[in-house]
Each structure stands twice: as C-alpha cells, then as structure tokens.
Design a protein that fits this description.
Elements: E1 13-21, H1 29-32, H2 35-49, E2 59-62, E3 66-72, H3 76-96, E4 103-111, H4 120-130, H5 132-144, E5 152-156, H6 158-165, E6 179-185, E7 188-196, H7 201-207, H8 220-226, E8 232-246, E9 251-264, E10 270-272
Parallel strand pairs: 4-5
Antiparallel strand pairs: 1-3, 1-4, 2-3, 5-7, 6-7, 8-9, 8-10
Helix pairs in contact: 2-3
Length: about 290
Amino acid sequence: MSEQTKPALMPEHCAVLAVDTIGSGGNAPEHLTGIPVLVRRLAEAALHAVGISGDAAVDEQFTGDGFMRTYPSRFLPALVDMVNALDGLLTAHNQSAKPEIRLRLALHVGPLPRERGFYRPNIDVNRLLGAATFKHVVEHCQAHVSGDRFTTALVLSEGAHKTVFGGDYTRSVDRHEFAPVQIKHNEFDERCWVRVAGVNPKQIVDATAGVSPSETPPTSADQLATGWGERSINNSGTVHGHQLSGDGNNIYATPNVNVSNYVGGTNTGIQAGVVNGGINLNRGQR
C-alpha cells in the first residue's frame, strides 16, 4: 500500500497590527526616549480593555516609536474595537500629560508562518502604514480637527475589512465609521478603509479627492504656497485699519469694519492694521 500523499497546506491566517507615533520626532529631546514605553503602556491598556491578554500575540517586532504584532485571526474584531478604547485613553493622557501621543495604525489579515521571515502580510501592513495617501489623510484631518479629538487614524486592508465586517463581530466600532481610500505604495495597490477619530468618513473622502493614489500629496508647506486643499478660517471682532479682500485680480479696502466671517477653501483675503510693503494675492508665489 502506497504512503498517503501529504496535502498542500498554507499557514494559518493571522491579524497583523502595525502602530506608529505621529510626529514623534518633533517632540522635545527629553521626551523622545519615553515615547516607546508610553505607546506600549497605552496600547496594553487598550488591549486589556477589549479582553486581549498580553500573551495573545504570537510575534512582536519593535519599530522605534511603535511596534508590529501578529495575533491569531480570531482576535481581528477585538483589535478593531481596541482602537476605540485607545481613543479614550489617548484623550485622557493628552489632556493631562506630556508628550501628547497620536497614533497611526494599520490592520491586515493573511496567511503567516510562525517563524519570522519576509512574508507578504508583514510587507503589506507596512505598505498600508507608510502610504503617502494615508499620511496625507492623517495630516489633513489633524489640521482640521481640534487637538483633543484627534487621537488615532486606522487603515484596514480590503481583506481585513471584509473579514471583520462580513459578520456581526465588532462591539464598539462600526463599519460606517470607515471611508474607502485607494492606497498605492510600491507594489501594493488596493482599496482600503480609513477611520480617523472624530472625523466624518465623508471628510476623509474629500481629503483624497483629486489626489492620485500613486503620487505623493502636497505637504503642508506646499498647500500654503499653492492654495491646494481646504483651509477654514473663523474670526470676529473689529479690524482697526483696513480690511483687504480680493480674488487675486482686484483688491478692495474697507476701513474700520466689524467682521464675523468664515472662509472655506482658498483664502485670498487679508485683515491687517498696518501693512508695510506690497501685497501679492497670486496663488503659488512666495
């Protein structure tokens, strides 16, 4: 009797979580060494809040100001819920202590061997976390959301999103909190799903409108120079001197006016008391 042929097998699916601190390098030098410990402590507290014990991860890799962890795929719903718990913990921390911590997170699911190596799920989760489009969404939302509300930005791969929301698995995070965003980073190119604390999904979609997923969106400095993107300005009170406004071709001066206005989109107005020198309202010139 011939020996039984062994079937072709694949590794068990795992949920891969990657976490990175937003703007960690901009902190004061005395805070830098404590950031990894602080991020780990806050993450552990959030994981505990959703019932994930410290020994549930099957692998962990330290990434400087964050980490990458692998969990059995059955923990995927709890990992999504964990972000909601993390929002509350970060809000409380940022209101009472320094440095303030805000996090980018990525979640992916795929077959992953237990031994460490160079595997597709690990590569893909890092493509998600480091994608220019995702970073642009984070930067845009951070600029338009009050500091105490902006705590986390989470990107789910298409596979993770389908898996976790294909049934009634999550408890505190809903599918309607996510916006579809096309992510392209090197060889990775697929529709993904982004949730930003305190941000309506439509705002996330608007933030990526007109931006090709394969290009690097403008930085904040570029946006100020070119007028790209949305800027919102609220002001009120008396302008002593002259209020100057215009459309880039004509300038109108009104002395000593009371103003209460909202400017959405490109701002081509100036309010000032005394102006020395010329004024150029042309976009894209410095």
